[in-house]
Amino acid sequence: MRYLATLYSLLCLATLAFGSGRSIIRSRQATVSLDSIQSNGLQNIVTWDKYSFFINGKRLMLFGGEVHPYRLPVASLYLDVFQKIKSTGMNVVSFYVFWGILEPKRGEISFEGFRNLQPFFDAAKKAGIYLVARPGPYINAETTAGGFPGWGSYTAGLWRTSNQSYFDAYTGYIKTVGQKIADNQITKGGPVILVQSENEYSSWKSPYAEDKQYEQRLKQAFIDVGITVPITTNDAHPNGHYTSVDVWGYDSYPNNFDCSHPTTWSAAAVPENFWSAHLQYTPNIPNAVYEFQGGAFDGWGGSGYETCAILTGSDFERGMGLSIISGWSFSDMILSLLQERNCHVYDLFESLHGVYTSYDYGSAITEDRRLRDKYYELKLIGQFLAVSPAYLTMRPQNIGSSQGKFTGNQALKTTQLLDVVGNQTAFYVVRQTDASLNSAQKYTLTVSTSIGNVIIPSIGGSLTLNGKDSKIHLVDYLAGTTALVYSSAEISTWETIDGKDVILLYGGTGELHETAIKTSSTPTVVSGSGTIKTKSLSGGVLAIQYITSGQTVVQLGNTVLYLLDRANAYQFWSLQADTTSIIVKGGYLLRSAKVEGGTLALTGDLNSTTSFEIIAPSAASQKVTFNGVNLEISKTAYGTLTAKKSVTLPDVKIPDLTTLTWKKADSLPEISTNYSDAAWTTVNRTSSINPTAPTTPVVLYAGEYGYHTGNILWRAHFTATGSETAFKVKVSGGAAFAHSVWLDSTFLGSWEGDVLHANYEGTYSFPAGRLTQGSAHVITILQDHMGYEEDGQSASDKFKSPRGILSYSFEGSSGTKIDSWKVTGNLGGENYIDKTRGPLNEGGLYAERQGWHLPGFDDASWVAGKPTEGLASAGVAFFRTSFDLNVPVGVDYPISIAATNSTTNPYYRAQFYVNGYQFGKYINSIGPQKVFPVPQGILNYQGTNTLAISLWAAKATGARLDTLKLQLTAKIESAMQSIILQPAPAWSQRKGAY
Ligand SMILES: *[C@@H]1O[C@H](CO)[C@@H](O)[C@H](O)[C@H]1NC(C)=O
Ligand SMILES: *[C@@H]1O[C@H](CO)[C@@H](O)[C@H](O)[C@H]1NC(C)=O
């Protein structure tokens, strides 16, 4: 997967910003010289200057994540994901639109079923999240053909250039999808604030180079359809490509994609030259990082997403993310899409080339919408940025000369970020000089402040940077009316509540920290076991030294300091109830706060009995409810509220799949002697525009006949000369594909697949004596299509790389001719049948063509048989069962299908269909995916569900699933909105099905 990583540098975006609903500029409105504000002249709601974006004239930092609606096909779950993102302090989400599933047949664009974008726009708006639309037309995204439609594979002209044929191909799509996006722009009351043109248009196959006419035309196409918000693009690296957009930016994946070595970091992962690149190419716009590593994808045979979650875990978020966002490499960030990309989410299709059937990405929110630890770390960053407006107008002062600076410790780099507009606040970002090291570094920080030069800590001792970490130390930071002259402990958030500035300061467990405040009051520890040391500095400033461990609360005058270790800091949520700011400690997730007539109504999710601490104006919290239930509140000695809430996690019965009644049918009637392929597509093309020139008499690329996904079957009819000994065939299917070959009804052999081969040439011997002279035979080949290659390098047309048969010959008889070839994939090909579940849901297996995977099919006449019993010979069997679920409302209990690896009978692949939706492909010998989350809404949690499984055994000994079960992956009491079942049309007789 490394090669993928380098090749297509990455793709996931992470955007984010914060706080559409909250007041971003609280402490101090930075002075803005209005004549420096720029716009694209088409609207004046989304504008920018060289520091940041403005929305409706308000400066804000965009900080957010990436969500792909097509990977989460349950519209009523979008709000859950957006709310979870919003609660980190982020304010924007970028999303790809996948052309290939919207226009699978040229000229016929459909938004049916989960492809409808409107619920996604609506949910974002409801959650208060801005959107950055990324409609391509090329998206990469580890998606088949990088998002291009399958028919592109036989459409002439170099794609991703100004070629007219390509222009003609994308024009209809851009018009139609552009219109939908245009209708949902902020200028029309919608959530869309930016539209990205192309995606990582950053490298070209020689002799081609950046095609400025293409860039110009594409940008104009968006404008022509009514896009008035700024147009952006993401260069794969900060190399100055496509800078003619309104707000250019770039991507960065500092930790790469080697999830199998999740603790190995490169020494200089994020070069400091990002900032210089920004100054070189676009000094007058915000420094935008449109994708910043929120996780990593994992490929077939990979190490699994939990390892990617380690590679890009909390220490990565701090060590790389915090650094980057804070100027290690660039500074003023701004549309800084940093982390969180919650990309993932499921994927309906086995259509991704290279990656398996999950896009969990190891991100902060898992594929089944659980919160990883890194979510809580991210929240510390998001909440901090949301209350630190000085950050928006800072500039790094010592790029390129940060080693040893301010600390005297050569093992550390420190960048000074000064707010050059407000001229008060400074941020000092400290990190390891060698990012790969895990050492603990002691240091003191010598900085200039409003009271002159100070050495922090000034009470003695030293600060520590513990391993893969970085810190943002603050100088002259205003929190309400509290002036922090400096703080080595970081701020997770602060709010002014009932006239008191409540400031949450945190550090690693056991670390020494010091915070200096202008005050005439004497600090008192009002709660917790921590102790403080104090020292008066000049200018009426008091330094307070403490160890961050547990939670200690210190009061001095109108300032309340919470001194927290990281684990405690994770538990705090900053919530906004209209104009009232509230801080709450406790809960797996807090979603919202509302104040009505003295009652504070909180909503959120719990995974255990929880003790809350609530910091809210007393007039707004006479009573407190959680998810509508009254809390019994007590007051702490220092005036905050506490309450306990027991969790309700009802037991539910999860059906045991192995004891259900299963039905079984053969799904490979094609190898029976009397099978007729008359209704199949005749293979008759004799030429192709494909860059891979055909070498066979007729073109054997499935795409030429409209088959672009899933299982593909070929039939070759021939008359034997009598001297054939074997059939040699080179089949292309994409990494991890397989193929099996039969002569008439006799199994000849298989290529079982591995992670290296996108195509494979096998030689399959004929049984001796079978091919007598003049006898008629048919060879049947079953292969799978793992998705088209991406087209990361422009002008390569690599996405057209064929799937199908590249060459064949008869050993022992060069004169044998194939009389006729037939092919089938999914029923109807580009005229796909299932408009609700979309064009990639089904492939060409007999069972799929007949619709046996759909609910409502009558399998009464089938024999009994379980996937755990399998089949006894090479071939394909199809299994069906149904089960009831009865999961009460008010909980979020994600469910997965789980299989285990077989070592005794390793070579098989299975596809899972839940209520007709394909939810994964399991390749036993390659892996690593064994767990296939199926979202509520596809699964009916209060009713009957149909589970269907195809099982393709690639060896004569057959195969079976060793185990198969449904499992709960979490039990959470939840305030998520109630889930509406996605439409799951039932089986009906398919016209012309063969
Ligand atoms: C901030 O400081 C810079 C450099 O010292 C100066 O040029 C600028 O005028 C100052 N701005 C304000 C608003 O004081
Ligand atoms: C609840 O969630 C938190 C945060 O993810 C986690 O640390 C904790 O282990 C979970 N508790 C239970 C009982 O699952």
UniProtKB/TrEMBL annotation:
<dbReference type="InterPro" id="IPR018954">
    <property type="entry name" value="Betagal_dom2"/>
</dbReference>
<keyword id="KW-0378">Hydrolase</keyword>
<feature type="signal peptide">
    <location>
        <begin position="1"/>
        <end position="21"/>
    </location>
</feature>
<dbReference type="InterPro" id="IPR025300">
    <property type="entry name" value="BetaGal_jelly_roll_dom"/>
</dbReference>
<feature type="domain" description="Beta-galactosidase">
    <location>
        <begin position="391"/>
        <end position="572"/>
    </location>
</feature>
<dbReference type="InterPro" id="IPR008979">
    <property type="entry name" value="Galactose-bd-like_sf"/>
</dbReference>
<dbReference type="Pfam" id="PF10435">
    <property type="entry name" value="BetaGal_dom2"/>
</dbReference>
<dbReference type="Pfam" id="PF13364">
    <property type="entry name" value="BetaGal_ABD2"/>
</dbReference>
<dbReference type="InterPro" id="IPR025972">
    <property type="entry name" value="BetaGal_dom3"/>
</dbReference>
<keyword id="KW-0326">Glycosidase</keyword>
<dbReference type="InterPro" id="IPR019801">
    <property type="entry name" value="Glyco_hydro_35_CS"/>
</dbReference>
<dbReference type="InterPro" id="IPR001944">
    <property type="entry name" value="Glycoside_Hdrlase_35"/>
</dbReference>
<keyword id="KW-0325">Glycoprotein</keyword>
<dbReference type="Pfam" id="PF01301">
    <property type="entry name" value="Glyco_hydro_35"/>
</dbReference>
<dbReference type="GO" id="GO:0005975">
    <property type="term" value="P:carbohydrate metabolic process"/>
</dbReference>
<keyword id="KW-0732">Signal</keyword>
<dbReference type="InterPro" id="IPR017853">
    <property type="entry name" value="GH"/>
</dbReference>
<comment type="similarity">
    <text>Belongs to the glycosyl hydrolase 35 family.</text>
</comment>
<protein>
    <recommendedName>
        <fullName>Beta-galactosidase</fullName>
        <ecNumber>3.2.1.23</ecNumber>
    </recommendedName>
</protein>
<dbReference type="Pfam" id="PF13363">
    <property type="entry name" value="BetaGal_dom3"/>
</dbReference>
<dbReference type="InterPro" id="IPR037110">
    <property type="entry name" value="Betagal_dom2_sf"/>
</dbReference>
<dbReference type="InterPro" id="IPR036833">
    <property type="entry name" value="BetaGal_dom3_sf"/>
</dbReference>
<dbReference type="InterPro" id="IPR031330">
    <property type="entry name" value="Gly_Hdrlase_35_cat"/>
</dbReference>
<dbReference type="GO" id="GO:0004565">
    <property type="term" value="F:beta-galactosidase activity"/>
</dbReference>
